[in-house]
Design brief:
With 100 residues, this protein is of the alpha+beta class. Helix content is 34%, strand content 28%. It has a single domain, classed as 3-Layer(aba) Sandwich (Glutaredoxin), CATH 3.40.30. It contains three helices and five strands.
């Protein structure tokens, strides 16, 4: 698969290696990005809809295989290459990142 250029956002919370796959036009994706930034989570992200079609197809297959899922929805968060959060639910994110 072609190398994807991610945008890195520095944060004080570096307990997890976090990658977010998002869509530039998705409201839930925007809320996930804001949540991560406001809570000073160190993460990298990419807007999937800004990638070449071939790359998106390969990425989708890889994400489905990694997460053992039948479909991919956005935002798609991967933590430590083994934990997956699909969609954005503020309570789920708070629980995962141990934020009150």
């Amino acid at each position: 698969m072609k190398e994807i250029e991610f945008i890195h956002v520095s944060g004080n919370n570096t307990r997890h290696q976090v990658t977010l796959y998002a869509l530039s036009t998705c409201g839930f994706c925007k809320r996930a990005l804001v949540f991560l930034k406001e809570n000073l989570i160190d993460f990298k992200y990419v807007f999937v809809d800004k990638l070449e079609k071939k790359v998106v197809g390969d990425l989708r297959e890889e994400l489905m295989k990694k997460s053992d899922s039948q479909h991919v929805a956005y935002p798609f968060l991967i933590s430590d290459d083994k934990k997956f959060l699909v969609g954005f639910d503020v309570e789920e994110y708070k629980a995962f990142f141990n934020i009150e």
